[in-house]
Amino acid sequence: MSRRRAKKKQRRRARDASAVPPRPAAEAARTADPPSRRPSRLDVREGVPRPDAIWAPFPLTEIGMAVGLVLFALGFASDAAGLFLAGVGMLIVVVGELCLREHFSGFRSHSILLGLLPVTAVHLAVVYAGAVTWRGPLALALDLAVAGAIAWWLQRRFVVAQSRARVGGR
Fold first, then answer.
1. Domain definitions of the chain by residue range
2. Residue ranges for the chain with pLDDT beneath 50
3. Residue 153 and residue 163: Cα distance in Å, rounded?
């Protein structure tokens, strides 16, 4: 760290310490206020709080991610296609749920990811259903156009949700 930056940091700490007048020990013991802390960027983003799941205190999303990662890794390491696909499927469901929750609450935009998920699922279903001719540049162009339209619509919904969350949060 440069000397100039260290001095600046030192002045900032001194200024912060002098802004709060010291309280007598007896008064401090009586009030016992917890120190106020600034909310983390993980908790609040641009004035919008992170949304809680309906199963809020129970960490179902995190457990689902851990199980999905374990299944994915085991399937990849042992060449077991069933475990691998189960892990991928579980991760898609869990991450999709988290992205939907954050997106429609106005916390963080996931327009492109949420636009690509249904298009990819439909394309895979069409290919695996037997329509193997659905490939090439035309299929890619159509898939990207549909995903772009969905992402555009989702971005508009996000802007509305974010403005509502900001007004309601303040």
1. 57-104, 109-170
2. none
3. 16
